[in-house]
Amino acid sequence: MTAVDRSLNYVNISGEQVPLSLRRNARAKRMILRVDRLSGDIKVTLPPRASQKAVRDFIAQHIGWIERERSKQNAALVIANGMLMPFMGAQSQLVFSGVPPRKISVENEQIVVGGPIDQAPARLERWLRAEAKRVLTTDARDYADQLGVTFQRISIGDMKTRWGSCSSKGTLKFSWRLVLAPEMVRRYVAAHEVAHLLEMNHSERFWQHVAKCMPDFASHRRWLKKEGSQLMDLQFKNLIDGSLNY
After folding, report:
1. pLDDT digits (tens, 9 = 90+) for 96-110
2. 62 and 45 in contact (C-beta within 8 Å)?
3. Residues 159-186: pLDDT tens digits?
């Protein structure tokens, strides 16, 4: 049995009350349905005037898709000592050494995190974010020079539904997880966001700007769509992220 409760707070799927969150977007022209990759919660983006009945009907029409997506739900793969994890597109073994110095080195297909083991995950997370900012700043500058534009600053985050963003004030924000991806995939996202400094949309002209930066961007975009969820599955113990939509 499937039902959406009257308050639109949850969906009853086979006796399980699955949390439902709704977000109205002034620019949305249709309803968009997502299932959180980790929690299995249901999220719907709505046009401004969508009615509650329309929401209920929309969810009921797509309940089969929701059940299939929730069946794919993977437990978070917690980043831990000894595991293999991607870095710059290559698999490396993670080693928490437990001895000084308190620094991180990449050598012989290993990422070695020095210092106390209980502090290693936090140290690794800070380092990955710093590495992401370093390489993405270089990437963004390269493409900004190509397109003759400037940006105000680069910030690094861990967004739930996108790999990057560009604000109207010229701030470029990127996911730290891009430092795990192959170089050209990462650089595609940088080119994508820099192109938004000229076109804050996804028009034909926008994609022409992206192609000017990277003529073969389509293959890297496909990689991100196909393989990017594996990067999202990697979690530090205190992090929870959602599915991708890029």
Report:
1. 999 999 999 999 999
2. no
3. 877 999 999 999 999 999 999 999 999 9
**N-to-C CA span, the chain:** 33
* Structure token digits, residue 126: 């800070």
Q: How far is CA 128 from the centre of its chain?
A: 15
pTM: 0.71
Q: How many CB atoms lie within 10 A of CB 116?
A: 14
- The domain defined by 121-235 folds into Zincin-like (3.30.2010)
User: Which segments of 98-246 does DSSP mark as H helices, in order?
Assistant: 120-147, 183-195, 204-213, 217-233
Handedness of CA 58, 60, 62, 66 (dihedral sign): positive
DSSP state, 30? Answer: S
Which of 138, 134, 244 has its CA nearest to residue 194?
Answer: 138
Closest CA to 43 of 62, 29, 26: 62
